[in-house]
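Annual report, structural modelling task.

Input specification for the zinc ion complex:
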Amino acid sequence: MTVLAVDVGGTTIKGAVADPDGRILHTLTAPTRADDDPVKAVRSLCVQLRDDAVRLGAVPVAIGVVTPGLVDDESGVVRYAANLRFRDVPLRALIGADLELPVAVGHDARAAGVAEAVARGLDDFLLLPLGTGIAAAIVVRGVPLAGATFAAGEVGHMPVYPGGEACSCGQQGCLEVYASAGGLARRYARLSGSSGVDSQAIAALVGTDPVARSVWDDATRALGTALASLTLTLDPARIVLGGGLADAGDLFFTPVRDALRAALAWRSPPPVIRSVFGARAALVGAAVMARREAGLPVPDGWGAPAA
Ligand SMILES: [Zn+2]
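The model returned the following structure:
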């Protein structure tokens, strides 16, 4: 009783075959823009993944596919995904016809929240993967919130510095301008004149390079401010941070926790902890969704990386 999981990103599509205990038996990666047709690229990866699973002697019973953008998980239609140039793509119907399997379609950040919820046995928390951009999973009583127009969790575009630097979305002073891995690298390049320095390298320079120190402090302060607003709105039991910046450990978490505490006067902040997953959270979430689609149980701890 294996399931197939697919995480469609702007650059690559990742596929996996997951066994009943949540172990990944096989993975497959393909460029999203092969033949300049991302829908075709997703469909052919799904077929290849199913064929690989059968060759391994596994019997896939369902598939979960997650994408960025505005995803209607009930109808299985991706309404809009700018990076993929998807508009009203009926992914569930297309893949269901290709594979003749039950298909769950979902949003990548919400799927990452599903994976984190199952892996840790958490019910009420916020998950913010700090990658190229920042989108949050808002998990309430075990279910990630989709919103009225499937656009909940776009916290990367919360204004944190009014009148601040321009964001690619058209607003100014957005959180992800300052606190995403991509934004940090762009600001460092502009202020230092040295391009090609990524967030990991900037973290290593914080002790010796004043520009690195300054963009790092802006990032952690911006995030602390945004987390204060989110805490006051949602009262989460935990805030879970993932992605490249979280890999910096205490250098990152200590100032973020301090900024969050400083912004809240009358209530205590929730614990801010690190995601148990690396870049695989959304893929594991897609596997969880596939199991649920097939009516299979998903016990706490399913899919969590071995300690
Ligand atoms: Zn923005």
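The mean pLDDT is 94.
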